[in-house]
Amino acid sequence: MTKPASRSPYTCNDYRAEMILLSLEKRLHKPGLEEEEKRALEAEIKKVRAQMGME
Fold first, then answer.
1. pLDDT of residue 1
2. Closest CA to 49 of 9, 22, 27
3. What is the pLDDT of residues 10-44, one digit of tens each?
4. CA nearest 40: which of 28, 23, 31?
5. What is the torsional sign of CA 11, 14, 18, 19?
6. CB–CB of 52/17 below 8 Å?
7. How high is the pLDDT of residue 6?
8. What are the b/e assignments for 25-54, b being 16+ CB within 10 Å?
9. Which residues, other chains included, contact 21 with Cβ-Cβ below 8 Å and sequence gap of 6+?
10. Per-domain residue ranges for the chain?
11. pLDDT grade for 3, boundaries at 50, 70 and 90
12. 21 vs 2: CA distance, rounded Å
């Protein structure tokens, strides 16, 4: 009998971070977005991705 690969548990915080990231990305692609807001969203997306270990 083999042991399954060891993975860290998927937590509520992981899910929350994913939903925040999806929401930010959705807002970023909204038509008519002002350049200042676009830059702010891109910075926030980068921050969330870093917290999730994606960058």
1. 53
2. 22
3. 899 999 999 999 999 999 999 999 999 999 999 99
4. 28
5. positive
6. yes
7. 64
8. eeeeeeeeeeeeeeeebeeebeebeeeeee
9. 45, 48, 49, 52
10. 12-51
11. low
12. 36
Can you read off the two tokens belonging to residue 18? Answer: 């994913």
Give the model's pLDDT for residue 54.
87
Three-state DSSP class for 11? Answer: coil
Are 49 and 21 within 8 A, CB to CB? yes
In terms of phi and psi (left: phi > 0; alpha: psi -120 to 50; beta: otherwise), the region of 52 is alpha
